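The following record pairs a protein chain with its ligand, nicotinamide-adenine-dinucleotide.
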Amino acid sequence: MSYFTQLLEGGYEAVHLLSDSKSGLRAIVGMHNTRLGPGLGGTRALATYASEEEAVADALRLARGMTYKAALAGVPHGGGKAVIMLPRGSFDREKIFESFGRAVESLGGRYITTEDSGTSPDDMEHVRRHTKYVVGLKERSGDPSPVTAYGVARAMEATAKHVFGSPDLKGLRVTVLGVGHVGMYLVKELHQRGAKVWVSDINPASVQHAVTQYGVTAVDADALHRMEADIYAPCALGGAINDTTLSLLNVKAVCGAANNQLLTSRHGEQLARRGILYVPDYAANAGGLINVAQEWAGYDRDKAYARTSLIFDTIDTVLTRAKESGLRPEQVADRMVEERLAG
Ligand code: NAD
């Protein structure tokens, strides 16, 4: 499909191709909808894109996701996301990120960057040498994971209110797949609220930490998926709800931190048919975005947490409207975003 067809069909504003022959930079910035404010979204840096077309498609898909996440969270930003196609051989990482900083600056503030998969706080330090349009910096808002986890816990409270009649998570059985940055902080939030927690992760050290620090029970992924529990929290990779896991799940609700939890929209339909309530991922995991948006506005940790706490209200509204309309929660959330963008 031609680039213009992709942009027009997907409602995109622009795709920027940014390059620098000295450093070898090849970056793509996808811009979806900036009606509510400048694009804000992370930079993904990978050496594994099979083609430029694949990298552009990834930047565009991710930018669209940011439009939806920001609009639903009430953050005054739009959808932007960057992808850097890292050279396959040896290269000077510092120079690549410095030239990326210059490229971001050249966009004049339409796009504000931050970390994402494959980029680190150190990379952002190199970016910031040449642009002011960067957030998630070490000595400012720092690691977004604790705030993201807090937001997911608030989303779970709203879920519990709808499914079990009370927002209290005490005694509820929660399964967590992936105890990395966000998953571990989520386990901490759940521990503080008195939930009973089971975890699984491919990294044994992380599992051990969760067991010793928070008294959770470790199980393998297959057992975790089959367990009878109240809420399942996918906190590892995307596509956690797929043909295999769908048939195993024995929970009342799915509410977690991972992006793109539903492998396809069909998996959302199937979850609903099985009577499992799905909390839209981009609604539950917006705390990290709220945190960096707060950094852009002037960082205040208390304000970032107070705004993230409102994820409870957002999920409450989404689930109430879903019940009233017969639509699935992810359809309701998308409609709420589209109303905000049109309004
Ligand atoms: P992370 O890499 O720190 O953690 C992921 C964890 O999942 C790791 O411990 C890893 O070992 C584990 N894992 C990977 N594959 C697995 C598998 N097949 N089975 C079990 N465990 C597996 O990443 P993170 O920052 O914690 O992010 C987790 C998810 O949340 C991602 O989907 C991310 O996009 C999303 N997210 C993160 C943030 C944030 O603030 N970090 C914000 C919004 C969304």
